[in-house]
Amino acid sequence: MTGMTTLSRQEARTRARQLTVHSYTIHLDLGRDGDTFGSTTTIHFTAHHQADTFVELRPTTLHGVTLDGRPLDVGLLSDGRLRLTDLTAGEHTLYVTADMPYSRTSEGMHRFTDPADGRTYLYSMCFQTEAPRVYACFDQPDLKATFTVSATTPEDWTFLTNSVATQTRPGHWTSPATPPISTYLMAAAAGPYHSHTFTHAGLPFGVHTRRSLAEHLDAEEIQRITTACYDHYHEIFDEPYPFDSYDQLFAPELNAGAMENPGLVVLTDSYVHRSATTDNQHATRATTIAHEMAHMWFGNLVTLQWWDDIWLNESFAEYMGTDVVARTTEWTDNWARFTTERKTWGRDADQRPSTHPIAPDPEDVPDTATALQNFDGISYAKGASALRQLAAWLGREDFLLGLNTHFTRHRFGNATLEDFLDNLARHTNRDVRQWAARWLRTTGADVLVPGVADADADTWLLHVHKDGNRPHRLLAAAFDRAPDGTLAARPTAHTDLPADERTTTLTLPGDPPDLVVLNDQDLTYAKTRFDERSWQTLRTALTAVPDPLTRVTVWSAARDLVRDAELPPGEYLRLVEKHLPHESDNTTVAAVLEFVHGTLLDRYLDPADRPDALGRLHDLTTHLLAHTEEHDRRLTVLPTHIGTTTRPTELTTWLDGTGTLYGVPLDADRRWLALRRLTVLGQLTASELDEEAAADRTANGEQAAARCRAALPDAAAKARAWELMFGAESALSNYLFSATAQGFWPAEQRELTEPYLKRYFPDALALAHRRGETVARLAGRQAFPHTAAEDAVLEEGRRTLAEEEPPPALRRALTDELDDLARALRVREA
């Protein structure tokens, strides 16, 4: 198999001037045995003038190439590029036949054999630069073309692609041509999938998953969410859905949450729940469904020209997905979930050295390797937050008018930031370009600080100080403390903070309130602080704040205070102990518990204080479980309860059926949670874990067993796990690598894992060079020693970045993780 040269922006611009690509006709031979599949590609294109160019291809074996019927030397293929020299002006036909490799890392054509029944499943992941692992192509987003895909498969398989596939005879499939789409959006899947099909608004829909998961597929709920989103998008968008079908495939070992292929959306089958689920898990799945459908317009109908504008895809889909679920489903509080789970992801990323503007300057994204690193919390969550602020600033009606103009003017084409701003400007008198300069071309989060003062007998003053130069439109909420301890909200109105004014003063009626919450309803993207009187009110009455989204904003601000070393971790823990038992929103409860357990205890607190804090957190979860009859609350709290126990008997009696755990049923996934904790505590042996794995021959069981084996508290088990991850013969799939990494570094096993701290950086570097970007990213994030918050780790990591040459994915991951580690040390020392 050949390597791959990174495509530069300049090369893409040159090739776009040279060529127009008309169509791809692709045949995939997926019926053969072995580690490869057959790929035959015919490309029709026009050269605008005499030129030298190249087509991308990453085969195991290149069998033949012809250009306009003339054979070319297969030796022209080098580093993933097949050179086409002395092209004459005019139309051309390129024909390429090759054997292509199957993947275990969800790059190219992924092959998965289900341990539950031995059936094999295939699906493609062509995102960004992986299409040449499947077929020969001019692989850049602005060379859009039609795709006609056919396939040969085993006779009992289903074949899916971007348009409706028809079986012409057993094992032979054809499909009609798609409208023009980008190369990274071509998709194919094959296997004995279980399918749920239906028709809505005259369009065929399908929901597909592995047969072993068929009984767990919430087909009716997924259908309900899908059709609600489809109908809402047709209410607000002028352009109709642009493709001939809509399939959703829940696929194994996907290296993303989902992929928005036109007509064939691929989602992780982690969304097919085999155990009892929380309401938040359902809301998350619904939001992903809505997010991916939004891409049919944002990204598929109108596509970015180069990868500097990835936010035109992801920020819009993130914003629309969240908003549509809030407007059309039972999860009307979906923006609170966004604040709790997604916005913190974006704000954390924005404070690291690797931060970048939502819309970076094109010169700052010189190639595809650089661009790939920007698929992060900034391009998704911060961008969506900025769009929510833009919609508030413009007004929703003008915002949607601008979007519809954008779709109509660029349908089946490509667009840039300037195109988008031009389309918005047609419908507003506001200076959208100045807004974009302040919001989209800059980094970081403004900090908003309130100051409260008396004005006269009838009014009070609210001073809003900000340290940045962005304009903000927000709600500032004020509350009065009643004698019974409740908080009464005063009327609020939108407030504009001008871009260049560091302090905005509002004169408001009445006496100064007991509590001021800036950014009520979370309309803008900023860090917010509290005046002293407000903080004292929150310390005693946080959960008396009546609105869930307002409370989420407060909890989020408190989290920021801890991360910024302005609130001691111990004080935050006391705040949690006092108020979490009275918090009604389970998404907030889950996020707070995760922050305390995974960050506060394992990183921010001095290790000597961890045992006491662990016990206090376990006591808190015990209280939460014992004082509720709500099933969803118990499912939410139980993982932290299990993960903090130091009393094995409460788990062993649950497992053997002699005891219960607060009425929560013992299903497969919660059984593995308990087994993992017992493993960390030294209560299980390798042979006992083997017996558990044999009883759960599923993909989930295989991954859970890998976590537990890596968590065994003995030197031999650690050595085995390390060899599986980093050894010269390491070939773990992306999911099994992650699972093993997740089990390796328990805080309770600090002495046992200490020898691996010195090995981590050189071994991760070598692995990244061997196995490519996906595994490099996992090695830098999942396998990073998160529980070792020590100066020595920080120093060794910084030396590695300074003296070695990690691949881009590993460099970005280590840069972020080391910055988080440095932050933890600052918090600990404050």
Automatic annotation (TrEMBL):
All residue ranges annotated as the Aminopeptidase N-like N-terminal domain in the record: 90-185
Species: Streptomyces alkaliterrae
Keyword Protein transport: no
Cofactors, names only: Zn(2+)
Keyword Zinc: yes
Upper taxonomic lineage: Bacteria, Bacillati, Actinomycetota, Actinomycetes, Kitasatosporales
Keywords per UniProt: Aminopeptidase, Hydrolase, Metal-binding, Metalloprotease, Protease, Zinc
Name of the molecule in the record: Aminopeptidase N
InterPro entries: Aminopeptidase_N-like_N (IPR045357), Aminopeptidase_N-like_N_sf (IPR042097), ERAP1-like_C_dom (IPR024571), Pept_M1_aminopeptidase (IPR012778), Peptidase_M1 (IPR001930), Peptidase_M1_aminopeptidases (IPR050344), Peptidase_M1_dom (IPR014782), Peptidase_M4/M1_CTD_sf (IPR027268)
Entry's family note: Belongs to the peptidase M1 family.
